Amino acid sequence: MDIAGNSNASTGAGSITIWFPKNGNASFDLSGSSVEIGPDLNLQGSRSSGAASGNIGNGGNSLTAKTNYGSIILKSID
Questions:
Q1: Within a 13 Å sphere around the CA of 47, how many CA atoms are in the beta-carbon half?
Q2: pLDDT at 1 over 70
Q3: How far is Cα 51 from Cα 4, in angstroms, rounded to an integer?
Q4: Rounded average pLDDT over 68-74
């Protein structure tokens, strides 16, 4: 499964949870107070406690998620 187009999610204060299939293809740019990526999602790129960017699968359309005071959580839907 691929993301049909580029997507953005943002909030000033609050968490964002993203459900994504582990066999999907997309590029991610995530930043927040903390970023958590499910252990079964193979994000190839860079990670720190408050940011992550890179590709899952073959990459592709991008999903950007940002929060100033909250967590970004990327979980597998499979």
A1: 12
A2: no
A3: 24
A4: 96
Q: What angle do CA 30, 54, 26 make, to 5 degrees?
A: 90
Helix, strand, or coil (residue 53):
strand
Other C-beta atoms lying within 10 Å of the C-beta of residue 23: 11
Closest CA to 44 of 17, 26, 64: 26
pLDDT given for residue 65 in this prediction = 98
C-alpha span between 30 and 67 (Å, rounded): 9
Structure tokens at 48: 């720190």
What does pTM read for this prediction? 0.91
Q: How far, in Å, CA of 77 to CA of 32, rounded?
A: 21
Q: What share of the chain is helix, strand, coil (3-state, %, to 5)?
A: 0, 65, 35
State how far the Cα of 42 lies from the Cα of 73, in Å rounded to an integer.
Answer: 14
